[in-house]
Amino acid sequence: xxxxxxxxxxxxxxxxxxxxxxxxxxxxxxxxxxxxxxxxxxxxxxxxxxxxxxxxxxxxxxxxxxxxxxxxxxxxxxxxxxxxxxxxxxxxxxxxxxxxxxxxxxxxxxxxxxxxxxxxxxxxxxxxxxxxxxxxxxxxxxxxxxxxxxxxxxxxxxxxxxxxxxxxxxxxxxxxxxxxxxxxxxxxxxxxxxxxxxxxxxxxxxxxxxxxxxxxxxxxxxxxxxxxxxxxxxxxxxxxxxxxxxxxxxxxxxxxxxxxxxxxxxxxxxxxxxxxxxxxxxxxxxxxxxxxxxxxxxxxxxxxxxxxxxxxxxxxxxxxxxxxxxxxxxxxxxxxxxxxxxxxxxxxxxxxxxxxxxxxxxxxxxxxxxxxxxxxxxxxxxxxxxxxxxxxxxxxxxxxxx
Length: 402
Description:
Layout: H1 2-14, H2 27-39, E1 48-51, H3 54-60, H4 81-86, E2 88-89, E3 92-93, E4 96-101, E5 103-108, H5 109-115, H6 125-135, H7 156-166, H8 183-199, H9 209-217, E6 223-227, H10 231-234, E7 246-250, E8 264-269, H11 277-287, H12 290-300, H13 311-315, H14 317-322, H15 326-334, H16 359-374, H17 380-397
Antiparallel strand pairs: 1-8, 2-3, 4-8, 5-6, 5-7
Helix pairs in contact: 7-8, 16-17
């Protein structure tokens, strides 16, 4: 988004009758502001940055304009199918992807070499814990594991939900009864709490995606499990001091193989309340087009282009050469399985979120409770008991099962 904001002067030169006014917000604040704005039909924005969580839910409410009748040059079929499917409601697209991602494990090859350990092709969480213990060197501010700790349904809970899935857990059973006070959640949160206390950086409960990216890029993380989109920044010598020392592997597996896997996209969408729909559509199609990707490549280099959206990006030899992780990321997105089954049947879809409108509130509240374990305010048992009970209250008030 920083790059897009900078390059939007090119768009304004091409379209002198359209002027852009950017509103930049921290991720949790962005989500809160946009949800309030769209639900109350306040109409403050003409273009929204939203995720594949919001797009189908908001489209169903009639809050978004359909992105249909796009010009042939836009090449809708060039959009990666799993990403396109996540933005489709009743056969129509309601958002266009600016970038897409799955998740992976980043690690420092030099630290692994020094410790005499090798990252397996398919690491387990147990192995990862052992590696983190071996490469942590707190005296020199090198932390074996960085993970999201900042509370938020799309911050710490995106990672935590993936970890819970991997251990065979889920948010709700088929009767919409919360399933947080279960052995799977207990195992997952005990692991998360334990590895961050033993091998994580100080103040982990304040670190979201951006904070961990900065820590890894400046040489302070030995491993980091997070979104594939970070690859473009970590391998970029202009942004990362460890660009030539980064290795990557799939997300670790837990006791339940085949769990739903992370699939996210950030998208540009037009609210039904926009008074500048044509201008908004012109900008959204420009900022998510093949031409825009070529512009980023020309200005910032191929390693910096928005990943995870277009087949043509991954088939481009220049991108393959600049981004050693390209093929890995494409495969991770193409096999991502957000609608797959958890160990026990579940009534919802989503891998790192629950695809119901109430999850924004539920996930953020539970995220604050879980973050309390990292700061020592609460134990894992107490946190899960409180989280389960708060979740039960919310779904009961919302009238589940519906």
